[in-house]
Amino acid sequence: MNSYSVKTIKTLSANEQHQLLELFAEADFAEFSEDTQWLADAVSNSVTAAAAFDSKGNLIGFARALGDHVSDCYIQDVAVRKEFRGNGIGKALVKHILQVLAEKNIDWVGLIATPGKADFYRKLGFEIMPEHTPMRLSPEKYEKYN
C-alpha cells in the first residue's frame, strides 16, 4: 500500500474537484457530471473537511462535518477509493474530523451510517441513538416547498 496523508482542506483545486466527484460517484454519493463547483462550495461551507492523498498527491479519501460551528455537527460523506480501502484511511479521516471538532469545543457529533457501515463507526465510538429515527425529505416532496 502506498503511503497517504490526511489534512484539513478549505478549498479544492479544479483537479481535486474532479477527483472528489469520481470518488463520490464510486461511493454512490453522486452521479458523475461535468459540474464540480458544488463540491468546492460544499467544502468551503462545511465546519471542517479533510482529504486523504496518496504519495502522488491524488485525492483518495474524503470526510466532512456539517453544523452550526458552535455545538452540534454531523459527519457526512466519508468515502475512500475502492483500491485503498482496508488500510485505515477512513478511520484516519474520521479521527481527523473529530480532533478538529474537539478543538472547536463542538461536543455533539452525529452521523447516519450507510448500509453495512455501522460496525465501522461503532469501532470509532459511535453508538446507535435508541428511540431516534433518521429521516429525510424526498426530492419529490421537497418540490412543494419551492
General description of the model:
The chain starts with a strand and ends with a helix. With 146 residues, it is an alpha+beta fold. A five-stranded mixed β-sheet has the order 1-2-3-4-5. The chain is built from five helices and five strands, in the order βααβββαβαα. It is 31% helix and 23% strand. Strand 4 (72-80), helix 3 (89-103) and strand 5 form a beta-alpha-beta unit. The model has no long low-confidence stretch (mean pLDDT 94). It has helices at 14-26, 37-44, 89-103, 118-122, 139-142, and strands at 4-8, 48-54, 59-67, 72-80, 108-110. The radius of gyration is 16 Å and the shape is globular.
**Beta fraction:** 15-25%
Q: How big is the Rg? A: 16 Å
* Helix count from the secondary structure assignment: 5
The biggest sheet, with number of strands, parallel, antiparallel or mixed sense and barrel status, is:
5 strands, mixed
Portion of residues within helices: 25-40%
Which descriptors would you attach to this protein?
single chain; 146 residues; alpha+beta; 5 helices; 23% strand
Question: What is the element layout, followed by pairings?
Answer:
Layout (H helix, E strand, L loop, with lengths): L3 E5 L5 H13 L10 H8 L3 E7 L4 E9 L4 E9 L8 H15 L4 E3 L7 H5 L16 H4 L4
Parallel strand pairs: 4-5
Antiparallel strand pairs: 1-2, 2-3, 3-4
